[in-house]
Design goal:
Oligomer: single chain
CATH class of the largest domain: Mainly Beta
Shape: elongated
Distance between the termini: 83 Å
Strand content: 35-45%
Largest sheet: 5 strands, antiparallel
CATH superfamily of the largest domain: GOLD domain
Number of helices: 1
CATH topology of the largest domain: Jelly Rolls
Structural class: alpha+beta
Number of strands: 9
Strand order of the largest sheet: 1-2-9-4-7
Radius of gyration: 30 Å
Length: about 210
């Protein structure tokens, strides 16, 4: 069963087909995603473990014939670009089977094909006008900004999770210290009370 946290965007709404999402990967679990890709298509797989454990995961990419195109063990993040040699269903799997108690939050961006030009610009037989060139540059800049925003959100989520874990550890440590101080205080009071308490003399009955 797949536990979707949130979907950033789907290929149906992009110029370039593909999938971009963030999902939970439970402990001792494996999640696979399938994408139909045509032959001689440039593809890019990018992923990053946002939270969980040592921030690592096993990754494997297979072609329609079952050949391993890419495989990494206990990686935190990476990017892989390849050109499809066959038409069919390609599969990318993320495995957390080596972890028995910590689940992971994984970000994946699987882009298929090159981004298409803006409508009306790709069919140009003449030189682009200044306005069209400016629109194209703005479009490229916006795509770059979106990529930066995505990576900054991932870093922010990772930093927030680490801060929450650190805060929880500090809280429990403070509670333990408080209990220890209270226990020592009661112990000292009890010992001092015994020092100043007059003991009754021992009388032996015959």
């Amino acid at each position: 069963m797949r536990y979707w946290v949130f979907i950033v965007s789907l290929g149906l709404f992009q110029f370039a087909l593909g999938t971009e999402l963030t999902f939970e990967l439970p402990d001792s679990a494996k999640e696979c995603f399938h994408e139909e890709i045509k032959k001689n298509t440039s593809c890019t797989l990018e992923y990053q473990v946002v939270t969980g454990g040592n921030y690592d995961v096993d990754v494997a990419l297979e072609d329609p014939k079952g050949n391993i195109l890419y495989k990494q063990v206990k990686m935190q993040f990476d990017s892989h670009t390849f050109v499809s040699q066959d038409h069919g269903i390609y599969k990318v799997c993320f495995s957390n089977e080596f972890s028995t108690f910590s689940h992971k939050l994984v970000y994946m961006d699987f882009q298929v094909g090159e981004e298409q030009p803006l409508p009306g610009i790709g069919e140009h037989a003449t030189v682009l006008t200044q306005m069209e060139s400016s629109a194209q540059e703005i479009h490229k800049s916006l795509n770059t900004i979106l990529d930066y925003q995505t990576h900054h959100r991932l870093r922010e989520a990772q930093g927030r999770k680490r801060a929450e874990e650190l805060n929880e550890r500090v809280l429990w440590w403070s509670i333990m210290e408080t209990l220890a101080v209270i226990t020592i205080a009661f112990g000292q009071v009890f010992v001092l009370k015994n020092f100043f308490t007059e003991k009754k003399p021992y009388t032996q009955f015959k």
